[in-house]
Design a protein that fits this description.
- By secondary structure, the chain is an all-alpha fold.
- Helix content is about 80%, strand content about 0%.
- It contains 23 helices and no strands.
- Helix 5 packs antiparallel against helix 21 and helix 17 runs antiparallel to helix 22.
- It is globular and about 50 Å long.
- The two termini are about 30 Å apart.
- The N terminus is likely disordered.
Length: about 425
């Protein structure tokens, strides 16, 4: 009996990979990935920035508006409340999942009906509420994923989650651009709100994660809910290693995070139409990203984590250089395809590697809080520079901006060199 149970829960190797991808939890995480991915481009990413550029806003203004997306970076601030309190319906995780999805449906609909031209202030507030709900949804989904299955399963769950996330990027990117080109941005955003019903239904039909017996029953002092998760992380790793891990996670995706806000305006300024952008960047590119995500999931299951961290760090940096092809060959389809291929396969690969790495750094007593902290740090530097990217481009050029973004990998490599032997000892 013990041998059979061990075999069923072994997710290493090729047979384990196939077993992991075939479980009901993997399907649930696909749908939750769809829900997490849908609002991201709509409230702080390329779809919103392209809409703003399309109706005449300046690059500097677009960059500043993108700071609304900082809710995704600061989600660790309210994650302790999600770890500590359950809503009076559906369970510890499902209640928060349902509430955040309902708020997203409502705010995306309101954004569509209002538009940025009529009242920019109210529009930004609605975008902020949607970003807050989307960040909350991300936090709960990450906790749900970690708690629903053992650590050996996390690479496979991360891959199916990112598959759903990438499909959502097709919907909120390519499909939204096609609809906007044909029937306007209002109808595009209303359709995105309708798509959010899919993960909502999947959540209602999913199972609530079992509370592990190892979970410590904590007292009700609110201060402890904020202090203990961070205290545990630093005491478990030691001060120096903990700080190095946090800094490494924060800088890991910096090269591609910092260029996201200017992507849509860059494509428009390079002479491509919204339909071109939808076809190449948000349709072809997302499928390339899905391939990169599954490649990352397989490699994490086969090779050592620190080796994959090194490979992912390099490819994320080098892929940004491909955008120089577009900057120097504006309007050329081959340059667009080449740049998008390099960028999306590297992002898909690195995304899975980072998710698997961060999952292994959390303690299940504080899953939502600790993972939210790591995920927030993974976006903080890039979000900050991205908000100022409009000023950087206006002061120099798109070409220099992409060179600068590629060189930003150097501090990450230095930290990884310091962590190299320590990661090996931690794994052992």
């Amino acid at each position: 009996m013990t041998s059979s149970h061990s075999t069923e829960n072994n997710y290493k190797g090729w047979s384990g990979i196939k077993r992991a991808f075939a479980t009901p939890s993997a399907l649930t995480l696909f749908c939750l990935g769809l829900g997490s991915g849908l609002p991201f481009l709509l409230v702080g990413g390329m779809t919103l920035s392209t809409w703003l550029r399309d109706v005449g806003f300046e690059l500097s203004v677009i960059g500043l508006i993108s700071f609304v997306g900082f809710f995704y970076v600061l989600k660790f601030l309210w994650a302790p409340l999600i770890d500590k309190y359950s809503l009076p319906f559906l369970g510890r995780r499902k209640g928060w999942l349902v509430l955040s999805q309902i708020v997203l449906i409502a705010t995306l609909s309101a954004i569509a009906l209002l538009g940025p031209e009529s009242s920019l202030g109210v529009f930004i507030v609605l975008v902020g509420v949607a970003a807050f709900a989307g960040a909350t949804l991300d936090t709960v989904v990450d906790a749900y994923r970690i708690e629903i299955a053992p650590i050996e399963f996390q690479a496979a769950l991360a891959s199916t989650y990112i598959l759903g996330y990438r499909i959502a990027l097709i919907l909120s990117g390519a499909v939204a651009f096609y609809i906007a080109d044909l029937w306007g941005w209002k109808n595009a955003y209303l359709m995105m709100a309708l798509f959010m019903v899919i993960p909502l239904l999947a959540t209602l039909m999913s199972k609530e994660p079992a509370t592990p017996q190892t979970i410590i029953v904590r007292d009700v002092h609110i201060v402890d809910a904020f202090i203990k998760p961070f205290q545990e992380f630093f005491s478990r790793n030691g001060m120096m290693l903990a700080l190095a891990l946090l800094l490494f996670v924060g800088l890991f995706r910096l090269p591609d995070q910092m260029i996201g806000v200017m992507a849509g305006p860059f494509y428009l300024d390079s002479g491509y139409t919204k339909t071109d952008i939808a076809t190449v960047s948000k349709l072809f590119g997302v499928w390339v990203g899905i391939a990169g995500a599954f490649l990352g999931g397989i490699c994490v299951a086969i090779f050592s984590m620190r080796s994959m961290l090194f490979v992912a760090t390099i490819v994320v940096s080098v892929s940004n250089i491909a955008y120089l092809l577009m900057a120097n060959n504006p309007g050329q389809d081959w340059a667009f395809f080449a740049a998008i291929s390099a960028d999306n396969i590297s992002q898909g690969f690195a995304g899975v590697v980072l998710v698997a790495f961060m999952s292994g750094l959390t303690n299940q007593n504080f899953t939502a809080t600790q993972y939210a902290l790591l995920a927030s740090l993974a976006n903080l530097p890039g979000k900050f520079i991205g908000g100022l990217s409009g000023y950087i481009v206006e002061a120099s050029s798109y070409s220099w901006f992409y060179i600068f973004s590629s060189l930003s990998v150097i501090p990450t490599l230095l930290i990884l060199a310091w962590l190299w032997n320590r990661l090996h000892k931690t794994s052992a």
